[in-house]
Amino acid sequence: MRIIYATDLHGNPGAYERFLKEAGKKKIEAVIIGGDIGPVGFMGLFIQAQRDFLEIYLLPRFRKFKKETGKTPFIMMGNDDFRVNMDVLERAEKKGILKLMSQKVHKLNGFQLVGYSYINETPFLLKDWEKKEQEIKNDLEKLAKKVNPGKAVFVFHVPPFNTKLDMLYNGSHVGSRAVRDFIEKHQPLLTLHGHIHESPRMSGQFNEMIGRTMSINPGSESMVSVGLNDLKSLKLIKFA
Q1: How many structural domains is the chain composed of?
Q2: What is the pLDDT along the chain (240 residues), one digit of tens a residue?
Q3: Rounded CA gap, 150 and 216, in Å?
Q4: Which range marks the domain in which residue 130 is found?
Q5: Distance, C-alpha 167 to centroid of its chain
Q6: Selection from 215, 160, 182 nearest residue 5 by Cα
Q7: Which domain CATH number covers 23?
Q8: What does pTM read for this prediction?
């Protein structure tokens, strides 16, 4: 069972095209996008810009991708996506164009796929997908009861705190403590992250073992392909 994952594409058609080209290969069985899917900007104008991006580019492109490959992408919003546009994605899911992940459990050929869009609090203005650490902890404990951790892939938009996956340009760590605690406690098979675009460049690593769990943040410049039956088959692929 081989998956491909990208995150923080921020409405970049070139990155989407490169990702979908790789995702269309026969060996890839699941296609996953982990948040921050639309163009970035301030409220008002960019609420509509993100809506236009979804309706004019992304959903028609996903429809074409599914027709050509038979694959339905898994996707969720991230902290830079305006929640008011969720209705666009929800209608697309009803039409079979995509599958929404956040706080849902999907079956994946003997494995389980779970998404979680929320991040810990930041100084940014957009708060649609932010929660306090205790709230995140409570949410994740509820999700843990629905899965077999050893067979579960969790897609968290936020990376775990104090790892090689949550490092800013200044070297500080800004990931979620609740996500880190969850991984340490439940030891899922694989966790996929994003949010901190520069972390792989700053830390020099895009993956880290937390106990028995492999955790990955490819950043905004790369995608990652990995076999769930053989995590050592991990492959980082640059967009450019």
Answers
A1: 1
A2: 999 999 999 999 999 999 999 999 999 999 999 999 999 866 656 899 999 999 999 999 999 999 999 999 999 999 999 999 999 999 999 999 999 999 999 999 999 999 999 999 988 778 999 999 999 999 999 999 999 999 999 999 999 999 999 999 999 999 999 999 999 999 999 999 999 999 999 999 999 999 999 999 999 999 999 999 999 999 999 998
A3: 16
A4: 2-238
A5: 17
A6: 215
A7: 3.60.21.10
A8: 0.96
